[in-house]
Amino acid sequence: METRASTASPAIHLIDTEADTLADLAVSIEDRLPQVSELLLREIGRANIHSRQSIGSDVVTMHAAIDFVDEASGATRSVQLVYPKDADISAGRISILTPIGAGLIGLREGQSILWPDREGRERRLKVVKVKQRATA
Question: Is the pLDDT score of 134 beyond 70?
Answer without folding.
Answer: no
